[in-house]
Amino acid sequence: MTQFLVIGGAGYIGSHMVKHLLEHGHQVVVLDDLSSGHADALIGGELIVHDFADRAFLDELFSSRRFDGVFHFASQILVGESVTNPAKYYRANTFATLTLLEAMRDHNLGPFVFSSTAAVYGEPVLIPIDEAHPKVPVNPYGASKYMVEQMLADFDRAHGLKYIALRYFNAAGADPQARMGEQHEPETHLIPLALQAVLGTRPPLKLFGQDYDTPDGTCLRDYIHVDDLASAHLLAMQHLQAGGKSGAFNLGNGAGYSVKEVIDVAAKVTGKPVPVEYAPRRDGDPARLVADATLAKSMLGWNPKYNDLETIIQHAWNWELKKNS
Residue 93 sits in which domain range? Predict the structure, then answer.
């Protein structure tokens, strides 16, 4: 039976990955220090609580266990914090991953599927954004992830470590059975902030800017269901196991939804208006961020199952209700 190591598997996307692997008959070992993950988000697998940047620990783990591949989700993700504390992001996202890659190289372990980000592109010059778009990150978060992508390409050339980097746009939604969902603190994602504003567990939602060059004046973003992200990761691993080439792929639904559309659909799903406070634009917010995911669909055979905004928000709402019951 195939056994995978999922680093950061107790986090939002990682826990859905663990669920997806278990549902497809794989054995799973989760390595997570629980600094932002939640043990109760796991529906199975073996949890090892430890820092993945500990080289001596990795040597012991890789010497005593057999893994058929590694999924890597653990990272710091707050763009604003990365600007004020860049060292934290380069240490946690870049240097820690270098330690992991060195250990994998020395123990002849692979393939490797990496959780990257659309932030590697920086300000969009073309919409939709495809993989050939210039990579000019505008914050340390995006830069720290792009450095890992460059390291992966170098490790592939030098050591034959096969990898796929998956560049997410906006991860959203929750397990359709409401067994897990977003539990970020602080929360920065639009959909949970809107839903929690409805519940009264957070202040009214701040809407930043209504004068963008979009149909309704608010920013357009590409939301992809977290279960669809998980399915893409397994397809990426299977692609590599079948002898496929290393590379990077966008993950998005190819359709942009505006902030006002999200608010309107959240109101429809919950049956209550979303409390909103209007605020000026934020610096650095592009009007549109939409993915071209044609390559992932053609090369990996990826076909998103939940690309309807109402379904995404309904699943997130079911999770919020369960979490607060």
Answer: 3-172+223-251
Q: How far is Cα 223 from Cα 205, in angstroms, rounded to an integer?
A: 18
Distance CA 239, CA 258 (A): 34
| Structure confidence by residue, pLDDT tens digits, 76-88 | 988 889 999 999 9
Question: Cα(100)–Cα(114) distance, rounded to whole angstroms?
Answer: 12
CA distance 107 to 62: 7
Cite the active site residues: 141
pLDDT tops 90 at residue 311 = yes
The DSSP secondary structure of 125-191, one letter per residue, reads SSSSB-TTS----SSHHHHHHHHHHHHHHHHHHHH---EEEEEESEEE---TTSS-----SS---HH
Rounded Cα distance, 187 and 35, in Å: 15
| Per-residue pLDDT tens over the stretch 255-288 | 899 999 999 999 999 999 999 999 998 877 888 8
Whether 140 and 21 share a structural domain: yes
Residue 133: CATH number of its domain: 3.40.50.720
